[in-house]
Amino acid sequence: MALPNSILFVCQMNMVRSPIAEGLMRKLYPSVERVESCGLAQGDKEQMVETIMAEIGIDVSDHEPTVLQDYKPENIDVVIAFTPQAFHAAQSYFEGNDTEVLNWPLPDPGAGSLDVRAMMDSYRAMRDLIKNRISRHFGPSDAK
Q: Could you tell me which CATH number the domain at 6-138 has?
Protein backbone atom coordinates (compact mmCIF):
# COMPACT_ATOMS: atom_id res chain seq x y z
CA MET A 1 0.00 0.00 0.00
CA ALA A 2 1.22 3.49 -0.83
CA LEU A 3 1.71 5.67 2.21
CA PRO A 4 -0.65 8.63 2.58
CA ASN A 5 0.66 12.19 2.77
CA SER A 6 -1.35 12.83 5.92
CA ILE A 7 -2.93 10.63 8.56
CA LEU A 8 -5.05 11.36 11.61
CA PHE A 9 -5.63 8.90 14.46
CA VAL A 10 -8.86 9.46 16.44
CA CYS A 11 -9.98 8.06 19.78
CA GLN A 12 -12.12 9.32 22.65
CA MET A 13 -9.90 11.82 24.48
CA ASN A 14 -6.55 11.79 22.65
CA MET A 15 -4.79 10.51 25.75
CA VAL A 16 -3.71 6.89 25.10
CA ARG A 17 -4.49 5.02 21.86
CA SER A 18 -4.24 7.87 19.36
CA PRO A 19 -1.02 9.45 20.75
CA ILE A 20 0.56 5.99 20.85
CA ALA A 21 -0.39 5.48 17.19
CA GLU A 22 0.85 8.95 16.25
CA GLY A 23 4.24 8.31 17.85
CA LEU A 24 4.58 4.89 16.27
CA MET A 25 3.58 6.13 12.81
CA ARG A 26 6.08 9.00 12.95
CA LYS A 27 8.87 6.61 13.98
CA LEU A 28 8.05 3.79 11.56
CA TYR A 29 7.13 5.93 8.53
CA PRO A 30 9.08 9.20 8.66
CA SER A 31 8.29 9.85 4.97
CA VAL A 32 4.63 10.56 5.82
CA GLU A 33 4.46 14.35 5.73
CA ARG A 34 1.83 14.85 8.42
CA VAL A 35 0.89 12.53 11.27
CA GLU A 36 -1.55 13.80 13.90
CA SER A 37 -3.93 12.51 16.53
CA CYS A 38 -7.05 13.81 18.23
CA GLY A 39 -10.03 12.84 20.33
CA LEU A 40 -13.74 13.44 20.29
CA ALA A 41 -13.23 15.33 23.54
CA GLN A 42 -10.01 16.79 24.88
CA GLY A 43 -8.38 14.83 27.66
CA ASP A 44 -5.20 15.43 29.61
CA LYS A 45 -1.68 14.26 28.92
CA GLU A 46 -1.11 10.73 30.17
CA GLN A 47 2.27 10.25 31.83
CA MET A 48 2.14 6.47 31.47
CA VAL A 49 1.91 6.84 27.69
CA GLU A 50 5.10 8.92 27.73
CA THR A 51 6.78 6.21 29.81
CA ILE A 52 5.80 3.21 27.69
CA MET A 53 6.70 5.03 24.48
CA ALA A 54 10.09 6.11 25.86
CA GLU A 55 10.78 2.42 26.55
CA ILE A 56 10.94 1.88 22.78
CA GLY A 57 12.77 5.11 21.98
CA ILE A 58 9.80 7.30 21.03
CA ASP A 59 9.41 10.69 22.69
CA VAL A 60 5.78 11.82 22.88
CA SER A 61 6.34 14.31 25.70
CA ASP A 62 5.42 17.25 23.45
CA HIS A 63 2.00 15.77 22.63
CA GLU A 64 -0.91 18.06 23.53
CA PRO A 65 -4.42 16.54 23.29
CA THR A 66 -6.59 18.03 20.54
CA VAL A 67 -10.11 17.46 19.22
CA LEU A 68 -11.42 16.43 15.80
CA GLN A 69 -12.75 19.91 15.03
CA ASP A 70 -9.18 21.27 15.18
CA TYR A 71 -8.52 19.69 11.76
CA LYS A 72 -9.69 20.77 8.32
CA PRO A 73 -11.32 17.82 6.57
CA GLU A 74 -9.73 18.58 3.22
CA ASN A 75 -6.20 18.36 4.70
CA ILE A 76 -6.32 14.71 5.79
CA ASP A 77 -5.85 11.69 3.50
CA VAL A 78 -6.48 8.84 5.97
CA VAL A 79 -8.27 8.74 9.32
CA ILE A 80 -7.96 5.74 11.61
CA ALA A 81 -10.55 5.60 14.40
CA PHE A 82 -10.07 3.45 17.50
CA THR A 83 -13.63 3.46 18.87
CA PRO A 84 -17.04 3.05 17.22
CA GLN A 85 -17.97 6.58 18.33
CA ALA A 86 -14.77 8.00 16.83
CA PHE A 87 -15.38 6.10 13.59
CA HIS A 88 -18.93 7.43 13.19
CA ALA A 89 -17.88 10.97 14.12
CA ALA A 90 -15.01 10.85 11.60
CA GLN A 91 -17.26 9.47 8.86
CA SER A 92 -19.63 12.36 9.41
CA TYR A 93 -16.91 14.99 9.78
CA PHE A 94 -15.03 13.93 6.63
CA GLU A 95 -18.11 13.22 4.51
CA GLY A 96 -17.82 14.73 1.04
CA ASN A 97 -14.00 14.69 1.09
CA ASP A 98 -11.62 12.16 -0.42
CA THR A 99 -10.51 11.16 3.08
CA GLU A 100 -10.41 7.42 3.73
CA VAL A 101 -11.89 6.67 7.18
CA LEU A 102 -10.87 3.33 8.69
CA ASN A 103 -12.34 1.62 11.73
CA TRP A 104 -9.78 -0.12 13.99
CA PRO A 105 -11.79 -0.59 17.20
CA LEU A 106 -9.62 -1.19 20.25
CA PRO A 107 -10.62 -1.49 23.89
CA ASP A 108 -9.74 1.24 26.37
CA PRO A 109 -6.46 0.04 27.92
CA GLY A 110 -7.11 2.17 31.00
CA ALA A 111 -10.37 0.42 31.85
CA GLY A 112 -10.33 -2.08 34.66
CA SER A 113 -7.51 -2.30 37.15
CA LEU A 114 -6.36 0.71 39.12
CA ASP A 115 -3.05 -1.02 39.88
CA VAL A 116 -0.27 0.99 38.22
CA ARG A 117 1.72 -2.09 37.16
CA ALA A 118 -1.35 -3.70 35.60
CA MET A 119 -2.20 -0.47 33.78
CA MET A 120 1.37 -0.15 32.47
CA ASP A 121 1.21 -3.72 31.17
CA SER A 122 -2.13 -2.93 29.52
CA TYR A 123 -0.68 0.19 27.88
CA ARG A 124 2.33 -1.79 26.65
CA ALA A 125 0.06 -4.45 25.17
CA MET A 126 -1.98 -1.73 23.43
CA ARG A 127 1.22 -0.13 22.10
CA ASP A 128 2.35 -3.44 20.64
CA LEU A 129 -1.08 -4.19 19.17
CA ILE A 130 -1.23 -0.77 17.48
CA LYS A 131 2.31 -1.19 16.15
CA ASN A 132 1.40 -4.56 14.62
CA ARG A 133 -1.78 -3.17 13.02
CA ILE A 134 0.09 -0.19 11.56
CA SER A 135 2.83 -2.43 10.18
CA ARG A 136 0.34 -4.88 8.68
CA HIS A 137 -1.66 -2.09 7.06
CA PHE A 138 1.15 0.11 5.75
CA GLY A 139 3.84 -2.51 5.13
CA PRO A 140 7.52 -2.43 5.98
CA SER A 141 8.82 0.60 7.83
CA ASP A 142 10.58 3.23 5.74
CA ALA A 143 12.70 4.40 8.71
CA LYS A 144 16.40 4.46 7.99
A: 3.40.50.2300
